[in-house]
Design goal:
Layout (H helix, E strand, L loop, with lengths): L1 H61 L4 H27 L3 H8 L5 H9 L1 H34 L5 H32 L1 H20 L1
């Protein structure tokens, strides 16, 4: 009789465990969906604000500027996109262990680097998707302004020449952006610890000045 009673108790407990487990899974899935929705909304507003600021700065700097300054602005936005792409790749490839030992030795920037690694999904999304894409858009609009400026100073303005100038500058921008990001990703994968150590130090310096 005791054996039967125990077996019945076992049967009654098992469904409860399964129900609790399914509830926990549903709750976890719901939390993940809510987190993704909140992050998507945050990314939207950050992208709009950052795009507006960079576009405004670019248009103000390019208004009445010479070709040298315009090319400098173009190089700046291309380089900015590559740098943030390197950070976004490095943060997903980096290992926490070297930074734990650095943090134990109180190395400046180690805690900041650990914070980035623990938020790798958000940091990578912000660097690669937000800043990287915005820099691509702004560099494209800057290249369009440069094309118009170059066409204005051409001694010969035949359709063939203007088309060649437009294609040449567009191809140059695309090549620099894609090639730079390809080289940057390889560098980020091989030197992820060094990249995050540098980024962590920069964050440490800024946080130290803010505390003062």
């Amino acid at each position: 009789m005791d054996t039967d009673h125990t077996a019945q108790d076992g049967k009654s407990v098992e469904p409860k465990d399964k129900k609790q487990s399914s509830r926990d899974k549903r709750s976890e899935t719901k939390e993940k969906k809510e987190w993704r929705f909140r992050w998507a909304v945050q990314v939207f507003f950050i992208s709009v604000a950052l795009s507006a600021v960079l576009s405004f700065c670019s248009s103000e700097a390019l208004e009445g500027a010479e070709l040298g300054l315009a090319f400098g602005m173009l190089a700046f936005f291309i380089l900015l996109g590559i740098v943030f792409d390197i950070i976004g790749v490095a943060v997903t490839a980096a290992d926490e262990r070297p930074f734990h030992s650095m943090a134990a030795r109180k190395t400046p920037g180690a805690r900041q680097a650990l914070s980035l690694i623990r938020r790798a999904n958000k940091v990578s999304s912000f660097c690669n998707d937000v800043v990287g894409d915005i820099c691509g858009i702004v560099s494209g609009s800057t290249a369009a302004v440069i094309v118009l400026r170059v066409q204005e100073v051409l001694p010969v303005r035949t359709p063939l020449v203007t088309a060649a100038v437009s294609l040449g500058i567009t191809a140059l921008v695309s090549g620099l952006t894609i090639g730079g990001k390809a080289v940057g990703k390889t560098f980020a994968l091989e030197k992820s610890t060094a990249v995050l150590q540098l980024v962590g130090r920069i964050m440490y310096v800024f946080s130290s000045h803010r505390k003062r």
